[in-house]
């Protein structure tokens, strides 16, 4: 019989297993002050939302009334999945009685949702896409949640949350939860990008990697080439280039979080360009492209609309969309070079008329 004192767990293993998200936030901020405690508590509640959503996804196929459509359309004009509604409500519920988050702005809600009991003191706003890529839910492929945290500016007396219509550099934290073979939470407070893996046996997100850096270049280009004929000529030029040059490979899942995670870890570029019909693109700025841009830039990558850095875009409305070119700096700049080349050619043609 081994004496308990003889069971030696290497300190680094025990320390890793004890590096929960809330502890990591305090380490990141090197503070136990009130703001650090607030952010630690907020991240802990986001983690709870991730656990609840992960649990439901893992059993969705065995439960009644979890999969499929609600029959409603959201403010985006998209058919709403039952899982979209559940996840949206989970994020609201985990912040009730928190005193932290006064407002939540979601892809699924036309207006921000206010939690009255929190608003007298809560100075934080959560912006989120509760389930991104929900088309994948019914076929058991990866989906994700995307989130950003901002400080409320002003009193928002008219309940229109106009202070959210500012650029992405106002985000104080951002990240995503990837519901894949394991459930991962990736986040940044502006001090690097760090990943956590949900250990179901503990019910905790445990630190898996710190200071993730995106490779300067990668072989992957990730885009829906079915839209080729709707793209501007510059994006078609880029697509022809990667078709004709060795060293590129296409990967596209139709779910943004998984596609971005692949790019973050292996390098490359994700594109959801504007089209002639929809120049503003499909993806939403405040709770999709801006949080991901914050994260990828923290990892040493780049994120633009193709002509403007995502983090500089100032939205005119809550659900504003932007084109997105994001990933390894070298690969994003290659896409931008085709856009700039077309602009030069178009200007030259106009000047010669
Ligand atoms: P398409 C999912 O609907 C989503 O918002 C993102 O997750 C994904 O990257 C994109 O739309 C897929 O759009 O037009 O390629 O099906």
UniProtKB/TrEMBL annotation:
<dbReference type="GO" id="GO:0006002">
    <property type="term" value="P:fructose 6-phosphate metabolic process"/>
</dbReference>
<dbReference type="GO" id="GO:0042132">
    <property type="term" value="F:fructose 1,6-bisphosphate 1-phosphatase activity"/>
</dbReference>
<dbReference type="Pfam" id="PF00316">
    <property type="entry name" value="FBPase"/>
</dbReference>
<keyword id="KW-0113">Calvin cycle</keyword>
<feature type="binding site">
    <location>
        <position position="252"/>
    </location>
    <ligand>
        <name>substrate</name>
    </ligand>
</feature>
<dbReference type="InterPro" id="IPR000146">
    <property type="entry name" value="FBPase_class-1"/>
</dbReference>
<keyword id="KW-0460">Magnesium</keyword>
<feature type="domain" description="Fructose-1-6-bisphosphatase class I N-terminal">
    <location>
        <begin position="20"/>
        <end position="210"/>
    </location>
</feature>
<feature type="binding site">
    <location>
        <position position="224"/>
    </location>
    <ligand>
        <name>substrate</name>
    </ligand>
</feature>
<feature type="binding site">
    <location>
        <position position="288"/>
    </location>
    <ligand>
        <name>Mg(2+) 2</name>
    </ligand>
</feature>
<feature type="domain" description="Fructose-1-6-bisphosphatase class 1 C-terminal">
    <location>
        <begin position="214"/>
        <end position="339"/>
    </location>
</feature>
<feature type="binding site">
    <location>
        <position position="282"/>
    </location>
    <ligand>
        <name>substrate</name>
    </ligand>
</feature>
<keyword id="KW-0378">Hydrolase</keyword>
<dbReference type="GO" id="GO:0006094">
    <property type="term" value="P:gluconeogenesis"/>
</dbReference>
<comment type="subunit">
    <text>Homotetramer.</text>
</comment>
<dbReference type="InterPro" id="IPR020548">
    <property type="entry name" value="Fructose_bisphosphatase_AS"/>
</dbReference>
<feature type="binding site">
    <location>
        <position position="131"/>
    </location>
    <ligand>
        <name>Mg(2+) 1</name>
    </ligand>
</feature>
<dbReference type="GO" id="GO:0005986">
    <property type="term" value="P:sucrose biosynthetic process"/>
</dbReference>
<dbReference type="Pfam" id="PF18913">
    <property type="entry name" value="FBPase_C"/>
</dbReference>
<comment type="pathway">
    <text>Carbohydrate biosynthesis; Calvin cycle.</text>
</comment>
<keyword id="KW-0119">Carbohydrate metabolism</keyword>
<dbReference type="GO" id="GO:0000287">
    <property type="term" value="F:magnesium ion binding"/>
</dbReference>
<protein>
    <recommendedName>
        <fullName>Fructose-1,6-bisphosphatase class 1</fullName>
        <ecNumber>3.1.3.11</ecNumber>
    </recommendedName>
</protein>
<feature type="binding site">
    <location>
        <position position="129"/>
    </location>
    <ligand>
        <name>Mg(2+) 2</name>
    </ligand>
</feature>
<dbReference type="GO" id="GO:0005829">
    <property type="term" value="C:cytosol"/>
</dbReference>
<keyword id="KW-0963">Cytoplasm</keyword>
<dbReference type="InterPro" id="IPR028343">
    <property type="entry name" value="FBPtase"/>
</dbReference>
<dbReference type="GO" id="GO:0006000">
    <property type="term" value="P:fructose metabolic process"/>
</dbReference>
<comment type="similarity">
    <text>Belongs to the FBPase class 1 family.</text>
</comment>
<dbReference type="InterPro" id="IPR044015">
    <property type="entry name" value="FBPase_C_dom"/>
</dbReference>
<dbReference type="GO" id="GO:0019253">
    <property type="term" value="P:reductive pentose-phosphate cycle"/>
</dbReference>
<keyword id="KW-0479">Metal-binding</keyword>
<feature type="binding site">
    <location>
        <position position="107"/>
    </location>
    <ligand>
        <name>Mg(2+) 1</name>
    </ligand>
</feature>
<dbReference type="InterPro" id="IPR033391">
    <property type="entry name" value="FBPase_N"/>
</dbReference>
<feature type="binding site">
    <location>
        <position position="132"/>
    </location>
    <ligand>
        <name>Mg(2+) 2</name>
    </ligand>
</feature>
<dbReference type="GO" id="GO:0030388">
    <property type="term" value="P:fructose 1,6-bisphosphate metabolic process"/>
</dbReference>
<feature type="binding site">
    <location>
        <position position="129"/>
    </location>
    <ligand>
        <name>Mg(2+) 1</name>
    </ligand>
</feature>
């Amino acid at each position: 019989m081994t004496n308990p004192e003889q069971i030696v767990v290497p300190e680094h293993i025990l320390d890793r297993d004890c590096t929960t998200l809330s502890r990591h936030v305090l380490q990141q901020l090197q503070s136990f002050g009130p703001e650090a405690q607030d952010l630690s508590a907020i991240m802990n509640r986001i983690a709870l939302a991730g656990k609840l959503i992960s649990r439901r996804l893992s059993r969705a196929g065995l439960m009644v009334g979890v999969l499929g459509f609600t029959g409603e359309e959201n403010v985006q004009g998209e058919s709403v999945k039952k899982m979209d509604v559940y996840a949206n409500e989970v994020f609201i519920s985990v912040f009730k009685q928190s005193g932290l988050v006064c407002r939540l702005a979601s892809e699924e809600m036309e207006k921000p949702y206010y939690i009255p009991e929190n608003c007298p003191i809560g100075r934080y706003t959560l912006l989120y896409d509760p389930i991104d890529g929900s088309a994948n839910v019914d076929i058991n492929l990866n989906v994700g949640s995307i989130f950003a945290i901002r400080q409320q500016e002003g009193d928002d007396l008219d309940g229109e949350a106009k202070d959210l219509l500012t650029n992405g550099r106002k985000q104080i934290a951002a990240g995503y939860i990837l519901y894949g073979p394991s459930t991962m939470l990736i986040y940044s407070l502006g001090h690097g990008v760090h990943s956590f893996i949900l250990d179901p046996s503990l019910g905790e997100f445990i630190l898996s990697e710190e200071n993730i850096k995106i490779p300067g270049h990668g072989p992957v280009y990730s885009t829906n080439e079915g839209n080729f004929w709707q793209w501007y000529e510059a994006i078609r030029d880029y697509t022809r280039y990667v078709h004709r040059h060795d060293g590129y490979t296409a990967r596209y899942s139709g779910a943004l979080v998984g596609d971005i995670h692949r790019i973050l870890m292996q390098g490359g570029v994700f594109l959801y360009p504007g089209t002639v019909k929809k120049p503003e693109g499909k993806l939403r700025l405040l709770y999709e492209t801006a949080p991901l841009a914050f994260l990828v830039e923290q990892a040493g990558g780049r994120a633009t609309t193709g002509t403007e850095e995502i983090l500089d875009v100032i939205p005119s409305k809550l659900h504003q969309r932007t084109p997105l070119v994001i990933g390894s700096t070298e690969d994003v700049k290659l896409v931008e070079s085709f856009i700039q080349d077309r602009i030069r050619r178009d200007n030259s043609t106009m000047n010669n008329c």
